[in-house]
Amino acid sequence: MRIIKARESGRSHGETMKLISVNVSKPREVVARGQAVTTGIFKAPVAGRTRVGKLNLEGDGQADLRVHGGPDKAVYAYPFEHYDYWRRELGRSDLAFGQFGENLTVEGMLEGGVHIGDVFKVGTAILQISQPRSPCYKLEIRMESSRFPKRFLASGRPGFYLRVLEEGEVGAGDPIELVRADPERLTVLEASRISF
């Protein structure tokens, strides 16, 4: 596949995209609303390189495969830039990478600047944006706020899911390269507003 230069893709010249953190967790049981709930949302950063498979990252798992995971939602990415926004908005200084359940904390990939169908090389893996995230009550559990999922969606900062076109390995610090821009040019933000 041909690597597209920044000017060809419509991105501003010199804008870099980078993988900031790789985050995984196996599902675990927690108590929420007085009931036991199994969730994989408590992602935490991992060191070194991590294998990306067709359905998830090595060491990662989803609890409810009816609504999470699968080939079209194998990897969840969330922009690093949103962390400052949420720290200010929530008055919290304890937000660590993986806080929003993301597998990949990414830089330079805001929802208004990337598109459904765009293909990227990350490490040795080839990933394609498939859809924006629709937050569920598991995010409420993670953030310890029943109102947070609605705030999250209304903020226009949902992050996005990726399908794995070619398996490979990723690690913090890897550059992210646009391989192919989708010709429809529907941004993740536009898709989120249309869908939700």
What's the short story on this structure?
The protein has one domain: M1 Pyruvate Kinase, Domain 3, CATH 2.40.33.20.
Describe what you observe in this structure.
This protein has 196 residues and is α+β, with helices and mostly antiparallel strands. The chain has one domain (6-195): M1 Pyruvate Kinase, Domain 3 (Beta Barrel), CATH 2.40.33. Helices cover 18% and strands 30% of the residues. It is built from five helices and twelve strands. The chain has helices at 6-9, 82-90, 137-143, 148-154, 188-195; strands at 18-24, 28-32, 35-39, 44-45, 50-52, 75-79, 104-107, 119-122, 125-132, 160-166, 168-170, 176-180. Strands 4-1-7-6-10-9-8-12 form an eight-stranded mixed beta sheet. The longest helix has 9 residues, at 82-90. The protein is globular, with a radius of gyration of 16 Å. 39% of the residues are buried. The model is unreliable at 1-14 (pLDDT under 50).
**CATH-level-2 architecture:** Beta Barrel
Q: Stretches where pLDDT falls below 50 for ≥5 residues?
A: 1-14
SSE topology string: HEEEEEEHEEEHHEEEH
CATH superfamily: PK beta-barrel domain-like
User: Any idea what the radius of gyration is?
Assistant: 16 Å
- The neighbouring-strand order within the major sheet is 4-1-7-6-10-9-8-12
Domains, number:
1
Oligomer: single chain
Task: Using the alpha-carbon principal axes, give the shape.
Answer: globular
β-sheet strand percentage: 25-35%
State the helicity in percent bands.
Answer: 10-25%
The helix tally amounts to 5
Which class do the helix and strand fractions yield?
Answer: alpha+beta
Average the pLDDT over all residues and give the rounded result. 91
* First-last Cα distance: 33 Å
Regarding CATH, which class? Answer: Mainly Beta
